[in-house]
């Protein structure tokens, strides 16, 4: 009798398992069929304008999506839209850092976009302007939006020595990234001048003096620390127009060149 019940239990278990599998297939088939009947009702583009950036607008993204789809995407069957490919194509835009595309419960296609953030504007030796982003890649200037940033000029991308140009651009990125993440320096630095020997001068927004910084890859944090101390303990006492240059190139020192009294008065007048 016990043997009979064991056999019956196994039969019931197998039948239950088969029934669940059949039900799963039916539900899955129904879901796939229902998915095939779903169509895109609308497109919603969400761009991170709260970041303060406005390189992109919703219209151009929608237009690009329609172009990539080969036709207007509204009304298209959702199962026939390759969302992964659309994301990758949108991310090829030079102002897009990241794009995500998904469908909400109302059958709307939602496109969320994070824009690239520039940290430096460059005007190279050929007078070509572009941005360097926080990811250390190039961004073209935009007709939609201009960002107020420090500007690098001088011997940048001379096309005479590719290894040198690469070093200069990498050092510019390191320098600009440091400035971007420091509140005081971000408010201070207006321009970076690149010399032929790859050394830098920083030109502040006020004070009418140059800061001889030297190489950006040598003791950068220490140089800026000395500069901050000098501004705090030195210039606040002597005035911002006493010196025409501040040299940070020497370890542990801040070497300044004074203006004569006429130059100092003229510099202060020009700043006013």
Describe the structure.
The protein is α/β, with parallel strands linked by helices and 272 residues long. It has two domains: 74 residues, Roll (Ubiquitin-like (UB roll)); 154 residues, Rossmann fold. Helix content is 40%, strand content 24%. It has seven helices and twelve strands. The strands form two sheets. It has a nine-stranded mixed β-sheet with strand order 6-5-4-7-8-9-10-11-12. Strand 11 and strand 12 form a beta hairpin. The longest helix has 35 residues. The chain is elongated and about 100 Å long. The C terminus is likely disordered.
Which whole number gives the mean pLDDT? 84
Strand order of the largest sheet: 6-5-4-7-8-9-10-11-12
Overall CATH architecture of the largest domain:
3-Layer(aba) Sandwich
| Estimated share of beta-strand residues | 15-25%
List how many beta strands DSSP finds: 12
Residue share in helix = 40-55%
- Biggest pleated sheet: 9 strands, mixed
Number of domains: 2
SSE ordering: HEHHEEEEEEHHEEEHEEH
First-to-last CA distance: 108 Å
Structural class: alpha/beta
CATH fold name of the largest domain? Rossmann fold
Weakly predicted, low-confidence segments: 25-33, 261-272
Note the total helix count.
7
Rg is: 31 Å
Blueprint (SSEs and pairs):
Layout: H1 2-36, E1 42-47, H2 58-69, H3 83-90, E2 96-103, E3 108-115, E4 118-123, E5 129-133, E6 138-140, E7 151-154, H4 162-180, H5 183-188, E8 189-194, E9 200-204, E10 210-214, H6 220-238, E11 243-247, E12 255-258, H7 261-271
Parallel strand pairs: 1-3, 4-7, 7-8, 10-11
Antiparallel strand pairs: 2-3, 4-5, 5-6, 8-9, 9-10, 11-12
